[in-house]
What does this fold into?
Amino acid sequence: MEFVIESLEKKFEKKEVLKDITFSFESGKIYGLLGRNGAGKTTLFNCLNRDLKMDGGRFFIREDERERDVISSDMGYVLSTPSVPEFLTAREFLKFFIEINEKSIKNIRPLDEYFEFMNIEHGDRDKLLKDYSHGMKNKMQMLINIVAQPNILLLDEPLTSLDVVVAEEMKQMLKTLKKQRIIIFSTHIMELALDLCDEIVILNHGKLEEIDKENLNQTEFKDKIIQALKEEEHV
Ligand SMILES: Nc1ncnc2c1ncn2[C@@H]1O[C@H](COP(=O)(O)OP(=O)(O)OP(=O)(O)O)[C@@H](O)[C@H]1O
It folds into this structure.
């Protein structure tokens, strides 16, 4: 499976944030999306998740040499600022999510199995989400996306608020999850991108550019990425 973006454009009033995003993502890989502050990473994710209307271009899935539209169950999106229904407990939220997506979720498991998998403790499962910490809300958002098993998973700086143990667990989980799906992971933490991601993609001047590792060692590759990021006109 490939996720193809062609000539995607987005501007806010006169400001052209995404000028010509053309890129093809392949399944089985984690893509690290890097870009300076304000480069447009969140805008790109919002367009792909159809939370924002694009001004031009299109995106689609290519499978067995056939193109098809991206439907909502293809796409999962974990926001940097987690958004969960605060008035529900974690268990109620998970139950509700599974019920409304029953048709598209494969191999539905008992709720506690999901909590176990995510290391959410027994005592927290029936707590209101409004009493969850930022990192725990993030974990819940990630859990919902693990349950849904979308073909394309967009992660907007999801690990920054997690403690080191949870972040490590999550990294391992993403490495398992990447099989047969595309994960696009935005982060400002270069080490994380290099450690976790199979490909590094930079959002530069409103375009996506893959940074080829060639035969570079880790330090040289890092320098090449920083150089490419410096070339970004600072917005
Ligand atoms: N709703 C909006 N209305 C007007 N301008 C916006 C809107 N959303 C984003 N922008 C502008 O678009 C540009 C890209 O913002 P975006 O949040 O996508 O960048 P980013 O790469 O995610 O940044 P960061 O790394 O700092 O989170 C910024 O200049 C921002 O001010």
